[in-house]
Amino acid sequence: MDVITFNLYVVRHGQTYFNVYNRLQGWSDAPLTDKGISGAEKTAEKLANMHFTAAYCSDTTRAMKTAKIILDKNTADSVKEPTVSSYLRGEFYGYYEGSDLEQSWYAAGAPHGLPTFKDIVSKYSLGKAMDFLKEADPFHQAESNEEYWKRWDQGLDLIRKDKNIHDGDDVLLISHANAVLGLVERFGEGKYDVTEPPANGSLTKLEVSDDQVKVVDYNIQ
């Protein structure tokens, strides 16, 4: 069987109320703000002439709404509806879902002498930040790095096995800040700064084949 390679255009969803309030938002489902909707519309305009053979998003309101805005404005005879999957959610923050972002990462990193998210990722990795947050969670229900990637690998396999996708095709994925960071950290060969989240509505381009993923562009606004 021939190996196919396709382009995966990963868009972070539009701004939500939890983004405004600076709260952790993994499986929480805050809606888009007016700015988030207009930002998604601007991203949609940039992608309006691109033909997407397939589209994917998580089952969160913010991701599905962003996907609908982009696909509704598309003029290149793209797929009309995204495939929705819980595999493609961002990290589950457990006890810290909806909590103040800085305070949550302080709780995770301070026991290790690292009081901020940036400190943790700079010294270790995004994966280690996930592990520290799980340790700090009194219920230990936040996802560890291993648990997160076990789920996300199923999401990537779901896309790879889409029989509608052929060599050279363009595919849309609406995703989340830490999900984008995770993809870039894992497959970006250390070329990109993953201590700061990508902007809402930003675009990250990956080349995906059966056996590898390559980061081509990151956080394009």
Explain this structure.
The protein has 8 helices and 6 strands, in the order E-H-H-E-H-E-H-H-H-H-E-H-E-E. The chain is α/β, with parallel strands linked by helices and 221 residues long. The chain folds into 2 domains: 12-92 and 144-169 and 188-221, Phosphoglycerate mutase-like (Rossmann fold), CATH 3.40.50; 96-142, no CATH class. It has a 6-stranded mixed beta sheet. Strand 2, helix 3 and strand 3 form a beta-alpha-beta unit. The longest helix has 16 residues, at 145-160. The chain starts with a strand and ends with a strand. The model has no long low-confidence stretch (mean pLDDT 97). InterPro entries: His_Pase_superF_clade-1, His_PPase_superfam, Phosphoglycerate_Mutase. It comes from Apilactobacillus nanyangensis. Keywords: Hydrolase.
